Amino acid sequence: MIGGPVCNEVLSAELIFAEGQHLTHDNKEALWEIFEAIGINWSNTNYDSNNQRSSWFEMVKAKTENAPNYTGEYVNAIYVINELKSMYGKGEAYRRLLFESGINNNEPPITRIAHCKIYVVNEFIRMQVMAGGFKSWGTKYNGEEARNYHGFIAGTRYNRIAIVRNYTPETNQNQ
């Protein structure tokens, strides 16, 4: 298990209660750093995920303004990351959290770090994949960026690029 006393503090497996609380600008920036670290560690995003920032922000806004409120989980994740960064340094802290946390996703999260990994990091990973995080997979190692791939949600909400190609029905020549 990684981390120190903050990370390994025992909690209930239920969501951390935070109704009525709001994230500050600094909280959102700290959470954005976690989201960025996913793409940096996997080497699968362009522009350090900045092309996904508005979608990510909308997700965080929805998760903190509607029930169940994730504000408590997000603030907990910041505490966990701060302890990991103070112990290992920024890059190593994220590497360990993403690849060596020892957290079993199939067990109830009963520590602060388990809450961070299951309720925040795993959610950010799903969002990154849905928003097209894998379309750049391998570009760091001279791979070719994916073409005609806009993520599992089938494209940008701005409709700047045609989805794949235009369909022109063939006319029946035998009529």
Characterize the structure shown.
- This protein has helices spanning 25-42, 53-65, 71-88, 90-99, 112-130.
- Helix content is 45%, strand content 0%.
- It is built from five helices and no strands.
- The protein has 175 residues and is mainly alpha-helical.
- α1 (25-42) packs across α5 and α3 (71-88) crosses α5.
- The protein is globular and about 75 Å long.
- The model is unreliable at 147-152 (pLDDT under 50).
Brief overview:
The protein has 175 residues and is mostly helical. Helix content is 45%, strand content 0%. It is globular and about 75 Å long.
Question: Top keywords for this entry?
Answer:
single chain; 175 residues; mainly alpha
Cα-to-Cα separation, first versus last residue: 73 Å
Q: Give the overall pLDDT as a whole number.
A: 83
Order of helices and strands: HHHHH
Oligomer: single chain
Shape assignment:
globular
Number of strands: 0
Write the layout of secondary structure elements.
Layout: H1 25-42, H2 53-65, H3 71-88, H4 90-99, H5 112-130
